[in-house]
């Protein structure tokens, strides 16, 4: 399995302010330097990087700059993360327009995968139809990704309508998109990550590894929290998945490179057993 790291830790997750008034421009972003992030990730020994669609879009008019950064660092762009509400019919075309752009850019920069989260929670409450709409939209995302030679996967996420294991079970029969387990988000939603991986082994197309502490709530480098990573890695191996393991840490009070190194050393020790 190849080890990669997500650039989110260099600045944390934010959104593009233009998206407040124009849904087609509502990208995920981190405000840190992608050059610094990629260089740090490479210096620790990771082979790949995952970026947000918004950070990738910043290089749309200057592609050679990002290719130079990746080439000099000796890492590849493994995957691109994006997301949307998906349940509102009126704005879905603009959301899919943005995802189409993200997939096109991902392919142009050599990525293999498109990872998406989402499924909005309505103020008035979630309906059965919301899951149906989400499933249908994710099938369209899959079509978009495949049109650019990418593999698409869905990432359950806190604050969406797919937080808990029961909610994931509602969605999975309604869509053919692949599954990207995020170990910490699954745990925070009340699941046993290893059990979920074992339940959907044939759907796994991508993996996010992240540790978690329930009280006080915090995402942590691997081996620093409460999750049973020996069992998680065993479940991944049992599934037959043998590709990118992307380590992710949404935020970190210290040096992001130091956090990446902590996770790398822990993961290498686990994988050597």
TrEMBL record:
The keyword RNA-binding does not apply. It comes from the Bacteria. GO terms for molecular function: isomerase activity. Residues 39-269 form the Xylose isomerase-like TIM barrel domain. Pfam families: AP_endonuc_2 (PF01261). Keywords: Carbohydrate metabolism, Isomerase. This is Sugar phosphate isomerase/epimerase. It comes from Pseudarthrobacter humi.
